């Protein structure tokens, strides 16, 4: 218990008087909150917390009367912390908490002053009640304010973490791919320039195009213009991508069915990045001879897959691909979809994308 302000002996009759009017005071508080059209009165959870808090404040006042000095029970910390967090989560402005505290203070003081005799002893005890009431309320307001601020700071931190994840995803999917293609094409240029000059020249041109695309994506990412351009055709985007990869030793096939316009540009854009990442993973890590990409549009959903006959991996000891696998899952979640990855050593890998059109993706 915290306390100071010695003001005199306690009077059991006054404590009983306060207890006799407890229900009346609480009812007046709830009624005045409603008359004020406070958001606290409209929210059942906030109202229940406010009334529980008010009950505890009356307990503090009763303890103050018994001790003859101001007392605030330690129990205030838990409920005040809950009040602050709940009101921050529901968007209740701090001004509303101050207004509610004022309403509560007036309800207690008004009730007591209207019913107490006006003798000097009663006024002395009323002074003690008012001081105890003020201390209990302000202590709880400070605790609730700290909780309110802590909740908002946590939300800011979560937003910062999510933004960092988004930036990492954008850099990996929109810039990393182009740099990887350019690097691989330049490696092929070195491989072919002595024996196949025409082929080597084509590799340089592909590397050049990949660098130009990466520069465009970099400008889009840095200027917050993502998605840089609405994706008009998922099939054309995949075909363009397949033109940039080294397919000399890999049989890559693409099958697209259905009407693409059933999916929104956002769904097509995110799906393209997911399928491109799955294909890139297959080529870079699986060493396959065949890769099959399927995309099926229906009026209510998109189903797509990337399947290879490469090395595969043990799902129990799934390889860590850094941002790549996580990026596919996060992009699927953005459009309300899911990705499923199945693989076995020596039997290739199968990546499945499913996007229903009932949510964000429509």
UniProtKB/TrEMBL annotation:
Its cofactor is [4Fe-4S] cluster. InterPro entries: HATPase_C_sf, HATPase_dom, His_kinase_dom, Sensor_HK_TwoCompSys, Sig_transdc_His_kin-like_C, Sig_transdc_His_kin_sub3_dim/P. It is an enzyme of class 2 (transferase). GO terms for molecular function: kinase activity. It is found in: Cytoplasm. The keyword rRNA-binding does not apply. Its main location: cytoplasm. Keywords: 4Fe-4S, Cytoplasm, Iron, Iron-sulfur, Kinase, Metal-binding, Transferase, Two-component regulatory system. The keyword 4Fe-4S applies. Residues 274-359 form the Histidine kinase domain. It comes from the Bacteria. SUPFAM superfamilies: ATPase domain of HSP90 chaperone/DNA topoisomerase II/histidine kinase. Its EC number is 2.7.13.3. Pfam families: HATPase_c, HisKA_3. It catalyses: ATP + protein L-histidine = ADP + protein N-phospho-L-histidine. Member of the two-component regulatory system NreB/NreC involved in the control of dissimilatory nitrate/nitrite reduction in response to oxygen. NreB functions as a direct oxygen sensor histidine kinase which is autophosphorylated, in the absence of oxygen, probably at the conserved histidine residue, and transfers its phosphate group probably to a conserved aspartate residue of NreC. NreB/NreC activates the expression of the nitrate (narGHJI) and nitrite (nir) reductase operons, as well as the putative nitrate transporter gene narT. This is Oxygen sensor histidine kinase NreB. It comes from Microbispora hainanensis.
